[in-house]
Amino acid sequence: MTTLALGPSWLDPDYLLNQFGLWGLLVIVFAESGLLIGFFLPGDSLLFTTGLLITTHKLDTPLWLACVLICLAAILGDQAGYLFGKKVGPALFNRPDSKLFKQENVVKAHDFFEKYGPKSLVLARFVPIVRTFTPIIAGVSGMRYRSFITFNIIGGVLWGAGVTLLGAWLGNIDFVHKNIEAILILIVLISVVPIAIEFLRARGKSKKAAVAEGAPPAQRGRHAKR
């Protein structure tokens, strides 16, 4: 396989799998699933590449074993995030920004959790960055552990096994096999789409809020009545 020409080489799925193998993959899945420092890791493209490499015999690991271990790492990662959120509590919302931590990511995950409730643990698995912070927010909000573990397992299996099996299935298609690098770039771009949509929505809301604040008091009153 050629190197994925998108982003730094140390985030390239092919490079990571060649350098660290299955165990490195599991560490990355665990970190991205619930550790604050894991939000930038390439989860979707990494799982897809794993399935693709296994089915093309470039990764010497049984597909069923990879799926089981990936699901387990994803579930345990969310578990760690939940316990961290429960321990830190509301203080997380007062934590200052740093190179690896942005308050806006916490707010975004909180809004996502408030909008979708417990099922956000399943939906967030397929949204980069949000999937890292959602289990933490679940812990901060005091979500019942029984509900958390149920949705955590469902989300971990659907994402971990689903994306890996998708890569394995598509890897058997001749067109995909001959255009692996282009397919990987497409997967990365697709995983970024939710972030772009969320950014545009937030930007639209900010503009509306700015317009509302700049409107005369009487006009704001008419908007409020509506």
From TrEMBL:
Keywords: Cell membrane, Membrane, Transmembrane, Transmembrane helix. It is found in: Cell membrane. The keyword Cell membrane applies. The chain crosses the membrane at residues 20-42, 63-84, 122-141, 148-170, 182-200. Its main location: membrane. Belongs to the DedA family. Residues 41-168 form the VTT domain. It is a multi-pass membrane protein. PANTHER family: INNER MEMBRANE PROTEIN DEDA-RELATED, TRANSMEMBRANE PROTEIN. This is VTT domain-containing protein. InterPro entries: DedA-like, VTT_dom. The keyword Transferase does not apply.
